[in-house]
Amino acid sequence: MKQLLVRSGKVFLKEVPAPVVGPKSLLVQVDRSCVSVGTEIAGIKMSGLPLYRRALKQPHHVKRVVQLMRDQGVARIYKQVKGKLDAGLPTGYSAAGTVVAVGAEVEGFAVGDRVACAGAGVANHAEMIDVPVNLSVLIPETLSFDLAATVTLGAIAMQGVRRAQPTLGETVVVVGLGILGQITAQLLSANGCRVIGTDVDPRRIAIAVENGLDVGINPKDGDLVERVIKLTDGVGADAVVITAASASSDILAESFQACRKKARVVIVGDVGLNMARSDIYAKELDVLISCSYGPGRYDVVYEEEGADYPLPYVRWTENRNMQEYLRLLASRRVRLDNMLQEPFPIDRAEEAYGRLSGEGEKPLLVLLKYPPREEAADRVLHLGATTPVDGRIKLALVGAGGFAQGMHLPNLDKLKDKFDLRTIVSRTGLSARSTAERFGVAKATTDYQAVLDDPDIDLVLISTRHDLHADMTLAALKAGKHVFVEKPLSMTEEGLDAIEAFHAANPKGPLLMTGFNRRFAPAIAAAQAAMKDRTSPMIVNYRMNAGYIPSDHWVHGIHGGGRNIGEACHIYDLFNALTGSQPVDVHACTIVPASGHWRRDDNFVATVRYADGSVCTLTYTSMGSKSFPKERADIFVDGKVLVLDDYKQLSVTGGKGGWKSLTIEKGQLEELKALAEAFKGGGQWPISLADQLSATRVSYAVQRQLSE
User: How many CB atoms neighbour CB 581 within 10 A?
Assistant: First the structure.
């Protein structure tokens, strides 16, 4: 399918694999999409800035990148960031089209329904989009795709009006009469308000007046504040809704000054927020921010999982705002007739954006249209014909997220003599294609089944969300594919039991390896060499200073499974590797937090006793400083003390050996080498099935005790 992307200050089209419908989503063939004049043009301009200037404007991203560079090396992270930017970024967040597939868990929609869709990264300018159910609404029969495609802009305007809480007869000023301001003014008029609109463009004022604006003011024609005060008999406006976009804070100051005492000022647009206390104190003004489309925005449970807020308690969610806006359009209470222009075909998108960013009169509203194309539904994209290389492991990577791109793919690139990476699978077509191009892979797809059906694939490397691991692993094993799956192997005991049952029924079946990389780290190899001839059990004290992650982060949710199952399983496997034994007893104890800030399930101590008499303890905490090293282990055995310092150093006291590195080396490269050797020799798995199962079951035992 064709998708519009942004790179280096320009837009361009790219052919990418079409998405697969998610279980809680709709697959929509787009008919129209609406260009957000303010937001998208700002994003295009940002993409044209040099990296250092973009960094100055987005310091929160820089902080994360710097931390990754410390952990993984400057060159690797720089290549990862540059590769993502060079591939282009998706744009668009408002579209309308026809449902062509319905997710298994979706109710209330059917194939053939006409729907309007919202969401950055979701309702993109693309021929096909996969849209969560709460970001989709049915289009009234009498409403055209042209009008319905503005649904996101309408919902944003509606949420701004709701934040203002207007009442019949109030005077409200709308600052900025772009498309958001135009819709806002009409919504306020429909609410029984007297509306004053202001903009520096007289054409926009004229359009708003034609659509029912009571008074239009051009700031160039005189003092805005003075005119508003006169129009309100010296009282001032009851409310101001700011829909303009400007880095200046003067807009905010003028809005305050135009208000009466105890008025409301609602900020919808992106304006400077430097406020003078004197402007708001004496009048006791309420300053309100309007968050996008309404309640539910940025809530993963609402937007991605489809969990609605009960109507009696949250009357107007983002989805209900979208529905109401379309109803007002259909009833012509809101009109866009004098702003609509003939849509641009997607192949002429560059021309459309040129109209918005060039000189001369700029349209208020730009639509893109998508002529039907049979190829738009293709989920597999062939980027080049390559013949499999004999003697190498033919591999498909499933899940091209940050970890895969930052760790697995560079390592596979180093091991080209062992692995033949043939296919990239990702949830989004753009991610699949851009990753495939970056690493010279011949095939990109969004369809996991296509990999399972491909006879040229020997090994599937699964690096997706945690909750998908077990089902994907089992499907691949049943398809006769060998599997390397990132931890955790399974988030549930049912999933793990199914994998164990498969291997019990197929003892000579495909190889399975969970990405428990720490046992392969050079420091651990040095530790095992130093303990090679041990004659007694060992005591291991392992500390993981994991760092704080907010409770609403995906790691703690249904996709991540929590930090014990999702990360601490690494250490339970490491205990297996160090002892060479199997766990016989697990005891866990957690903190009793005084507030909801600290979680019980990422602040605990777990002790595992092994059949050989060894005792291993993990202290896992999120309460420490992130500036302190993350991982440390003290191993006591046979009169020796081995100290592992954050996978940069191993020291041995009372014996020989040790290891040191300038960077953190946790064994990701070495585990792939071990996997390749297992293929070459056709013998013992790099990690025994018993170890993979027991490490995962220890995490379940710990989780049960943490929950009690």
Answer: 19
